[in-house]
Design goal:
383 residues, nine-stranded mixed β-sheet
């Protein structure tokens, strides 16, 4: 007889779902990328709370795996990171120093990326209040039109050398727009453009490639690579099998099971109506947990080896799957199905929703019970 009691391995049955994060897989992915980019230093990007997986848990694992350089987006992310890594770890803030925050960069030992003439001036002004101006990164816009110094900006800097006086430039970087499409001509064009632009700046190590760029080959590695999504198991492109270890598994509780007859509607809008009797299960994950309504009809859950198609629209706190192929009595309330796991990756979920794995991963909600596993295991936490 099937038990209605919570799974004994489930330490908190107050949450609707469990998100398992494999810390060993993160460490393994870092070491793999480090080997792939041998000859270049391998940093670790932990912005957006380590892509939604918890910077306090993830960053120390990456440092233990060999990372000494970390990248975040905002100053407050850098301050948060500073408290969980060693003093020798270097933290770079991609969005640079904003007015009022440059002093915090100095105070917490954060290296800003200077993306504009205004940020260069702001950082130099901060240096006038210190004995030694801390190091900074210069970013050039090699063709993405998002961040970085333009060709015109470089002409201004060359025409007035005083604008760079006192700056300690420890890295020059840019960012590829199409690295996940290996044969895109923009990749070569951006690399050439970056090399031309960096030649007009003070000599410093160069960095162009983030996760996908690492897989374009050694010509793109330069001095520093900056993997982010790849650390967390996201495929670098869709041209072949994913060489990275999966990091997350999302399992959700079954809340209710019912049988429906032909023609009966399912979910909001009654957008699904079966043509024959079906058994369906309501599952405790919805769009408030980051599981998108978009592409739901292309999605599925899994129970053991059985695919469970998602039926109708995803609700805020739940979704409905077809369990007709599961033998009667094998799956019941309070048991769990996989929404992300061995048979359905983060990238698969993203493809069904018409988005990318980055968005899926960073959108995963904080109502899940989170469990961190591996040799770096820490006590689980209920969110």
């Amino acid at each position: 007889m099937m038990s209605a009691c919570p799974d004994p391995l489930w330490p908190s049955y107050r949450a609707g779902a469990r998100l398992t994060v494999d810390l060993d897989a993160i460490a393994s992915n870092y070491r793999y990328l480090q080997t792939l980019a041998s000859g270049a230093s391998c940093a670790a990007v932990v912005k957006a709370d380590a892509y939604g997986l918890g910077i306090e848990r993830v960053a120390p694992v990456l440092e233990n795996a060999g990372a000494t350089d970390f990248f975040v987006a905002h100053v407050d992310e850098g301050i948060r990171l500073r408290s969980v890594v060693s003093e020798k770890a270097r933290i770079t803030v991609l969005h640079g120093p904003r007015p009022g925050a440059s002093g915090d960069c100095v105070r917490y030992g954060l290296r800003p990326v200077l993306n504009s003439l205004e940020q260069i001036a702001l950082w130099r002004d901060e240096g006038s209040r210190t004995d030694v101006l801390p190091e900074a990164v210069l970013q050039v816009d090699s063709g993405m039109s998002r961040f970085g110094l333009s060709g015109t900006d470089l002409e201004i800097l060359q025409a007035d050398t005083r604008l760079m006086e006192g700056l300690k430039v420890s890295l020059v970087m840019s960012h590829l727009a199409c690295a996940d499409t290996p044969d895109h001509p923009a990749n070569q064009a951006q690399k050439d453009r970056m090399l031309q632009m960096s030649a007009r700046l003070p000599p410093a190590p160069l960095s162009l490639s983030a996760s996908s760029g690492i897989f374009l080959g050694t010509d793109y590695h330069l001095d520093v690579v900056r993997p982010g999504a790849a650390l967390y198991g996201i495929a670098p492109n869709r041209t072949g099998p994913n060489p990275l270890s999966p990091v997350v598994r999302l399992q959700a509780h079954v809340l209710q099971i019912r049988e429906i007859l032909p023609g009966e509607g399912v979910g909001y809008g009654l957008t699904y109506r079966p043509d024959r009797p079906r058994r369906i299960a309501t599952v405790a994950v919805g769009y408030a947990d980051g599981f998108s309504r978009l592409g739901a009809g292309q999605g599925c859950a899994w129970f053991e080896e059985i695919r469970l198609p998602i039926l109708g629209r995803v609700s805020m706190d739940s979704l409905i799957v077809d369990i007709s192929d599961v033998p009667e009595g094998k799956l019941g309330p309070d048991m769990m199905v996989d929404l992300i796991g061995p048979r359905r990756s983060v990238d698969d979920v993203a493809e069904a929703a018409g988005t990318i794995g980055y968005e899926v991963l960073t959108s995963l909600g904080h109502r899940f019970y989170r469990e961190y596993v591996g040799n770096h295991e820490n006590p689980s936490e209920g969110d």
